[in-house]
From TrEMBL:
Residue span, MIP18 family-like domain: 13-83
Protein name stated in the entry: SUF system Fe-S cluster assembly protein
Protein origin, superkingdom: Bacteria
InterPro entries to which the protein is assigned, alphabetical: Fe-S_Maturation_MIP18 (IPR052339), FSCA_dom_sf (IPR034904), MIP18-like (IPR002744), SUF_FeS_clus_asmbl-assoc (IPR014291)
Gene source species: Chryseobacterium oryctis
A Pfam family: FeS_assembly_P
Length: 108
């Protein structure tokens, strides 16, 4: 089944809401506001590809956090599949955080 652009946009909004429920265990800010999610691609068939990173390659949740993201996004209505790519290029830095996250952590 092919989705319309509006339906894809709605799915995208739901995915972002879900991403904002996933937290880095060491920082009290969600992964979306931290800037750990580099890209969310949604095909006409609602196959989702997420490109994300971690604050460091040695992050204590390197095994579990990507799986949590994948599981939660897979539960979004109409999402057919979720492909998650973990990348460390470019490396994450605090400049990638949203203004809101910087404010919460006292960087502003």
């Amino acid at each position: 089944m092919k989705f319309t652009d509006d339906q894809i946009a709605d799915i995208g909004e739901e995915i972002i809401k879900v991403l904002k429920t996933v937290y880095d265990p060491e920082i009290p800010v969600d992964i979306y506001e931290l800037g750990l999610v580099y890209d969310v691609q949604i095909s006409d068939d609602a196959d989702v590809k997420i490109i994300m990173t971690l604050t460091t390659p040695n992050c204590p949740v390197a095994e579990t956090l990507p799986q949590e993201v994948k599981d939660k996004v897979a539960e979004v209505e109409n999402v057919k599949s979720v492909d998650l790519e973990l990348t460390f290029e470019p490396s994450w830095n605090k400049e990638m955080m949203s203004e809101e996250a910087k404010f919460e952590l006292g960087f502003l």
